[in-house]
Each structure stands twice: as structure tokens, then as C-alpha cells.
């Protein structure tokens, strides 16, 4: 299936070596999906069906719906979907047929799908990351404005303390509208700081209700990891026991070296760095 916000294009590959056939395009609505499942089961007389679609902005709603209907579904990684070099034709119909063919041949790589609790916690931690990025952006804009007008805070002193805020609010400019700009930037920084603090408090409140809370307590025992860091880590990884070995976990995180060699040319890359 090639999924979009409004539509789903469906291709079907029957067992064997026959060419996949294009089924239809349906609206991306639970009622339409239910009718499609019912229709295909009637056609194939109750045979087991395997569904798949690429991970994307539509999330896992379709996956959970199909699983609730008793269907087997895979969400596959777009970055690992085989593509023919030089293929310049891309349509929803063509993509649906390609996915159907590759699913039958076993060439697709499924991704781990979080359950509803895990997905909710991941959204919560990612929201804090978004707010933190907004705070950093607001601080950068304020610093740039002040520096652009010949004012700067001493480099050997800590920023964003009460003393720093007092200094910022004491700045005066020749034109009154520059005072307006300064105050708006200061208010923006304070507002984003409050948003980060609020959602951090909310994370601490819901932590005891999370099934992975005991694992968070264990990770906090490691040097350099606080509760927020542990929650973010586990929200992204989920149940760590799903990895068969530490090596597999490190590969998932991108912390293993890579190699690109051809003939007499050998190139070894250092470990990738996971952003903080």
C-alpha cells in the first residue's frame, strides 16, 4: 500500500511469480479500509493476507487498525526499500505495485512499531525537544540582536541568570522601537523557558505510570544520565530486550564503524555520533 494523508493506493501480489495487479485507490478512512479488507478476504476465500506500507508522516494508525482486524501488517523502512537506479517514473500506482512485489519476495525491512503507550511517551519527549529547540532559537535571536547593536555580555560570565536578564532589561537604545524589539525578544525567551519547564514537570508526573519507569530508575544509576535523558532514550528505543545483543543495539544507534571498499580502495569510517 502506498499511503498518503487522503488516499491509499493498493497493489496485490498473489503467491507465485505472476505480476502484481493494481487493486484500487481508496480514501484513507477506517471505514474504507475495513471494506477493502472484507472485499479481499471474500475474493481469496479467507486466505491469510500480508499487508505492508512505508513508514511516513501518517504514523501507525493504519497498522493498528489492520492489527485490530486480525490482519498481519508490516511497516517498512523507506530508506531500505530497494530502488532501481535511473528509474525516473514515480506514481502512487507504481509504488503500490513495487511494494507488493517486494513484500512477496521478502526484500523489505520492517521497522519496530511502538504500542500506544510507547508512542504517546515518545510524542511527549519529542515535544519537549521541540520546545527546547524553540528556546535555543529564541536565545540565539536575542543574542544576535544585542550584538548587532554593539552590546555584548562578558564571555567569562554565565548567561541566562537573573543578573544576565537584569542586564538585558537595562539596555537602552536611541530609537524607541528598538526597545520594543528588545522586550519582545526577552519575552520570547522567557516564554519558551516556561514551556520547557512546564512540560518537564509533566514528564516527571507521568513517569511513575509508564511501564518502563523501573528501567528509567536503573539508567539513572549510570554516570551522566538523569531522568529526562533516560526517558528520552527509552522513549526512542522502547523495550531494550527486543535487541538480541549489545552489538545490535549499537548498530541501531549508529555507533558502529562503517566500511566502503572497492578493489584496492579501502575506506573505514569512524563511529557515527548520536545527537544529544
UniProtKB/TrEMBL annotation:
Residues 219-270 form the Transposase IS116/IS110/IS902 C-terminal domain. Signal peptide: none annotated. GO terms for biological process: DNA transposition. InterPro entries: Transp_IS110-like_N, Transpos_IS110, Transposase_20. Residues 2-146 form the Transposase IS110-like N-terminal domain. GO terms for molecular function: DNA binding; transposase activity. PANTHER family: TRANSPOSASE FOR INSERTION SEQUENCE ELEMENT IS1111A (PTHR33055). This is Transposase.
Amino acid at each position: 500500500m502506498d499511503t498518503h494523508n487522503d488516499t491509499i493506493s493498493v497493489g496485490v501480489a498473489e503467491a507465485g511469480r505472476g505480476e502484481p495487479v493494481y487493486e484500487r485507490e481508496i480514501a484513507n478512512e477506517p471505514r474504507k479500509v475495513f471494506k477493502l479488507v472484507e472485499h479481499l478476504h471474500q475474493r481469496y476465500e479467507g486466505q491469510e493476507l500480508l499487508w505492508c506500507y512505508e513508514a511516513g508522516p501518517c504514523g501507525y494508525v493504519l497498522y493498528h487498525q489492520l492489527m485490530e482486524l486480525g490482519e498481519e501488517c508490516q511497516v517498512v523502512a523507506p530508506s531500505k526499500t530497494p530502488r532501481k537506479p535511473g528509474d525516473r517514473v514515480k506514481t502512487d500506482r507504481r509504488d503500490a505495485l513495487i511494494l507488493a512485489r517486494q513484500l512477496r519476495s521478502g526484500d523489505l525491512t520492517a521497522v519496530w512499531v511502538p504500542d500506544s503507550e510507547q508512542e504517546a511517551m515518545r510524542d511527549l519527549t519529542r515535544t519537549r525537544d521541540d520546545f527546547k529547540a524553540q528556546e535555543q532559537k529564541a536565545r540565539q535571536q536575542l543574542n544576535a540582536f544585542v550584538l548587532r547593536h554593539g552590546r555584548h555580555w562578558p564571555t567569562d560570565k554565565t548567561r541566562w541568570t537573573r543578573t544576565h536578564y537584569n542586564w538585558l532589561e537595562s539596555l537602552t537604545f536611541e530609537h524607541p522601537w528598538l526597545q520594543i524589539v528588545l522586550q519582545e525578544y526577552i519575552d520570547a525567551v522567557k516564554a519558551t523557558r516556561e514551556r520547557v519547564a512546564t512540560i518537564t514537570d509533566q514528564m516527571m508526573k507521568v513517569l511513575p505510570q509508564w511501564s518502563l519507569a523501573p528501567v528509567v530508575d536503573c539508567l539513572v544509576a549510570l554516570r551522566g544520565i538523569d531522568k529526562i535523558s533516560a526517558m528520552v532514550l527509552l522513549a526512542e528505543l522502547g523495550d531494550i530486550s527486543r535487541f538480541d545483543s549489545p552489538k545490535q543495539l549499537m548498530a541501531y544507534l549508529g555507533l558502529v564503524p562503517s566500511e566502503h571498499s572497492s578493489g584496492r580502495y579501502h575506506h573505514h569510517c569512524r563511529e557515527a555520533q548520536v545527537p544529544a
